[in-house]
Design goal:
- This protein is 14% helix and 41% strand.
- It is mainly beta.
- The strands form three sheets. Strands 2, 4, 5, 6, 7, 8, 9 and 10 form an eight-stranded antiparallel β-sheet that branches. Strands 1-12 form a two-stranded parallel ribbon. It has a two-stranded antiparallel sheet with strand order 3-11.
- Strand 8 and strand 9 (120-125) form a beta hairpin.
- The radius of gyration is 19 Å and the shape is globular.
């Protein structure tokens, strides 16, 4: 089993703002997704593993960079039912016994729409169904699309303490990742064993903290 280590999502990292001191409690207001809501998904994943066979060892590394721009087109409660996503960057850098290879996936630089309908998720581009292989690649990144957001549901209603892990959110992230990432692109299963979500601080935006 291969274990993926997920780098911190830059969307949850506080910008250079005056942070509250560690130990102070903060109440987080959950805002449900609505039409027109936009976000940027910026992730870096790194893996390193060794395969031993026939008395020999082969070393592998994988460095994946993703930059996706998302826009909600329709939502119901805490569930996004239709979304537009632009794959600004999707690059995979691999090494096998010292030999390097960089691959730009076919979705890079393109825009697709996902819609949850009749128990299925449709992937289109330019109003037409996406190529089946491309659609599979898109759905590999959005395996939980059309389902309730676990992180929103897991957000504690009680105040969060700055500097301390939030177990409910950490557990929800592990479940979300393991369901969302069903395949690592090689037929292998990527899993996350544990995670730790910590509130680092707060910032003010448009006069609101």
């Amino acid at each position: 089993r291969r274990v993926a280590r997920k780098a911190p999502d830059k969307r949850t990292e506080p910008r250079r703002a005056a942070a509250r001191p560690a130990g102070k409690a903060v109440t987080v207001k959950v805002v449900m997704p609505t039409k027109g809501h936009k976000r940027v998904k910026n992730e870096v994943m790194k893996m390193a593993f060794t395969i031993a066979a026939g008395g020999k060892e082969m070393k592998f590394t994988n460095h994946t960079e993703q930059l996706f721009e998302e826009e909600v087109l329709a939502a119901k409660g805490d569930t996004v039912t239709k979304m537009k996503v632009t794959f600004k960057k999707y690059t995979v850098k691999e090494t096998q016994d010292g030999k390097a290879k960089t691959t730009k996936l076919p979705v890079e630089g393109k825009t697709y729409e996902l819609e949850a309908k009749d128990g299925k998720v449709l992937v289109t581009t330019g109003g037409k169904p996406a190529d089946p292989k491309v659609a599979k690649l898109v759905l590999k990144e959005y395996g939980t699309f059309g389902k309730p957001n676990r992180l929103l549901k897991a957000m504690p209603k009680t105040p969060l303490e700055i500097g301390k892990p939030v177990k409910a959110l950490s557990d929800a992230m592990v479940k979300e990742f393991n369901e969302d990432r069903s395949d690592d692109g090689t037929g292998g299963k990527m899993t996350m064993n544990d995670a730790s979500i910590v509130l680092k601080g707060t910032e003010k935006k448009d006069g609101v903290e």
